[in-house]
Amino acid sequence: MQLSQLKFHVLAFTFFLAALSANGQGYLKTKGHIIVNEKNEKVILRGMGLGGWMLQEGYMFRLGNIGQQYKIRAKIQELIGPEKTQEFYDAWLTSHTNKLDIDSMAAWGFNSVRLPMHFDLYTLPVDQEPVAGQHTWLEKGFALTDSLLNWCKAHHMYLILDLHATPGGQGNDLPISDRHPEKPSLWESEANRDKTIALWRKLAERYANEPWIGGYDIINEPNWGFEDPEDKRGTKETKNIPLKKLMVDITKAIREVDKKHIIIIEGNGFGNNYHGILPAWDDNMVISFHKYGNFTDAGSIRNFLDLREQYNLPLWLGESGENSNNWFTNTIRMVESNDIGWAWWQLKKIGINNPLEIKVTPGYQAILDYWSGKGPAPAPAEAYRALMEFVGNTRLENNIYHKDVTDAMFRQVVSDKPIPFTPHVIKDKAVIRAVDYDLGRNGIAYNDLDTASYHYTPGVNTQGNRGYAYRNDGVDIRREDNGFVVFHIENGEWLQYTAQVAAAGNYTLQVKVKADTDSTGARLNISSNGKVLAGNVAVPSGDKEWQVITLKNIRLSKGENRLRVEFVQGGCVFSEIAFERK
Fold first, then answer.
1. pLDDT on residue 122
2. Mean pLDDT along residues 108-115
3. Does an H or E element contain 371, and which?
4. Is 202 in contact with 136 (CB distance < 8 Å)?
5. How far apart are CA 551 and CA 539, in angstroms?
6. Distance of alpha carbon 438 from alpha carbon 553, whole angstroms
7. Please, are residues 569 and 525 in contact by the beta-carbon 8 Å criterion?
8. Contact partners, residue 216, CB within 8 Å, separation at least 6
9. Phi/psi at 218 (5° precision)
10. Most-buried pick from 43, 151, 242, 325 (CB within 10 A)?
11. Is 142 helix (H, G, I), strand (E, B) or coil?
12. Has residue 386 got a pLDDT over 90?
C-alpha cells in the first residue's frame, strides 16, 4: 500500500481513535483482577511490540542462521568495515521506528506500545565499564525512549517499557536477549544483576512522573534452569528462587524513586512458569504471560486464569502473534472476554503476519545469499549501498501495509460482517483477482480448512497460508510470474468477493485456472447472493498451464453482489475472474 493510501486509512479511523483515547486517563493501576485508570475505569490494553528496533533478532530479517544481533553486526562489519557499520546502526535507530509508526498505530486502534529495550543503548556492558562496579549511562537509549513517549502521549497511548535484553542475557534462547554464551549470563554474574537493578532504578527515576508510561515489564522471557542446568528452557523449574529474588530486588529499587507505576512480572520458561514466584510482593503488580502456536480457547490459558483467581492479580498477554489472522481474531476475542489486555509481536519485519512488512531489495537478497553460502561476496561499496537501502525500507512510508492484519485484530474481533478487501466495481468490463477476496472471519469472507499454525500443540500440523505471501489468512497464496494466485485448494473451500454491479444484465465470465500438481477433476460453483450462477464447472485436469473457462449468459443483478467461488472438489490453482457485459 502506498503512503497516500495509508494516510487515507489512518484518517478513516479518527473517530475510533477518539473513543479509545477517552480510556486513557492518568496513571494505570491494578484493582483486583483488572487494570484501571485514575478515573477507576477498566482499561483493556491493546498494544504492539516494537521488535527489531532496539534489538535485532535474526529471524525478523531472514538471518535466523546468524542469530544474535552482535553476530549480525560482526557480519556486516566484515563486509563494510567498522565506520560504515556504525553508520548503518545509527541510521537503523533513526529510521526503523518514527512518529508516523505511532500515529498509524493509534489510528488502527492500538492504545499502547511495548518497547523491547536492549540494555546496551542505556548503559555499558559490565566488562566495558572503566571502573568495575560503576554504571556509565548512555544518552542514546534514553533519548530514543523520550521521543517514543512523546509520540505516544500525543495520542494518549500508554508506553510499556520491556527489558528485552538484560545485561549478560536472561536465557538460553540467545537471540531474544542478544546473549554472548561465552560470557557470564545474567544469572551467573552478580555484576550483571546489579547493573540490571541499577538500570531499572534509573529508568523509574526518569519516568516516575510520566502518566503515559503504562508499566515496567522488568525481565522479558527468562528461560534458565536454576535447579537443573539441563532444563534449558526453564519450563520444569519448581522454585525459581534466583528469578524471584532478582525481580524483588528490581521492584525495591524502582519503588525507591517511583511509587506509581505498575510492575509487570514474567515467569521462567519464556514468561509462563510461575512456580515459586507468587504471591505478589507489591500492591501494583500484573502477571504477564506469552502465547504462541496453541489453541485459542480459554482452556489454553486456564493455568493463568487460575493464578489470577488465587492471587487476585490482573493478567496481561504481554506477547503473542506470529500466526494467521484467524488465530489473531480468536485469541484477542478470547482474552478480551476475560478482561485481559494484550501486546502483539511485532509491528514490522520481513513477512506477512504483522501490520507492516519490510520489503527485501535485490541488493539485500544478494547479501543474504552470500551469508548463506549461495552467492559471491558483494563488493564493500555495493554491500553498503544495499544495506542502507534496506534501512530505508524499514521506514513506514516504504513498508507494505497489511490491512488484513489490523482488520483481524480490531474490526473482526467485534464484527462478523465481511467487507471488500479492495473495491470491485463491475461495469462493462472488470477483472477480480482471486487473492482479493473479502476481509472477514473464516467461514464468512472465505472458507479454508487450514487456517492457523499450532506448532506448539503436539499432533496438530497445520500452518495457515502455505505460500506466505500477500495476505495472512488461511488461504494459500503464492507469487507466480503473472502475480499472486490461490493454490493448495481443498474440497469445500471457497472465496467471497463483494462487488458493485453497475447495471443488471447477462455477463460472460472468464475464470483463469490451472490444475495443481498431480491433481485431477477439480470442480467449482459460482454464486451471487446465495444463488448458483454456474454449477459443477470442471477445471481441465492434468494441464499445468493456465486455462480460461468461459461461462456465458451469467445473470448479475444491479447493486451489491456477494460473489462466491466454491471449490466442490479442490486441486487447482485460481488466478482471476474477468467479467464482460453482453
1. 98
2. 98
3. helix 362-371
4. no
5. 12
6. 25
7. no
8. 160, 161, 200, 203, 204, 254, 261, 262, 263, 264
9. -75, -30
10. 325
11. helix
12. yes
Q: Are 73 and 85 in contact (CB under 8 A)?
A: yes
Burial of 152 (0-12, 13-18, 19+ CB in 10 A): buried
Query: What's the pLDDT tens digit per position in 263-302?
Result: 999 999 999 999 999 999 999 999 999 999 999 999 999 9
Q: Are 161 and 177 in contact (CB under 8 A)?
A: no
476-510 in b/e burial notation, b at 16+ Cβ within 10 A? bbbeeeeebbbbbbeeebbbbbbbebeeeeebebe
Q: Using CA of residue 63, residue 69, residue 75, residue 79, what is the dihedral sign? A: positive
Residue 264, all three cell numbers:
509487570
C-alpha cell at 468: 506466505
Residue 165, beta-bridge partner list: 118
pLDDT, tens digit, for every residue of 302-326?
999 999 999 999 999 999 999 999 9
Over residues 140-164, the pLDDT tens digits come to 999 999 999 999 999 999 999 999 9
Query: Does pLDDT of 513 surpass 70?
Result: yes
pLDDT digits (tens, 9 = 90+) for 538-564: 998 776 789 999 999 999 999 999 999
Cα distances from 305 to residues 273, 298, 319, in angstroms, run 14, 9, 16
The domains of the chain are located at 3-53+96-358+394-408, 416-581
Asked if residue 227 has pLDDT above 70, the reply is yes
The DSSP code sequence of 314-329 is -EEEEEEESS-HHHHH
Over residues 397-431, the pLDDT tens digits come to 999 999 999 999 999 999 999 999 999 999 999 99
**In 375-434, alpha helices (H):** 380-393, 403-409, 411-414
Name the CATH architecture for the domain at 3-53+96-358+394-408: Alpha-Beta Barrel (3.20)
Element (H, E) at 555: strand 547-556
pLDDT at residue number 458: 87
Report cis status (omega within 30 of 0) of the bond before 279. Answer: yes
Same fold yes or no, 3-53+96-358+394-408 and 416-581: no
**Across residues 95-111, what is the average pLDDT?**
98
Say how far apart CA 122 and CA 143 lie, in whole Å: 9
pLDDT bucket at 6, cuts 50 / 70 / 90: low
**How big is the chain, counted in residues?**
582
Strands 263-266 and 34-36: unpaired
CATH topology of domain 416-581: Jelly Rolls (2.60.120)
CA distance 206 to 522: 64
CA distances from 495 to 403, 435, 489, 525 (A): 18, 9, 11, 11
CA atoms within 13 A on the CB side of 261: 33
pLDDT for the residue 540:
85
Distance CA 399, CA 42 (A): 34
> Which has the closest alpha carbon to 387: 80, 96, 71, 101?
80
H or E segment and range at residue 532: strand 531-538
1-5, 13-17, 501-505: which has the minimum mean pLDDT?
13-17
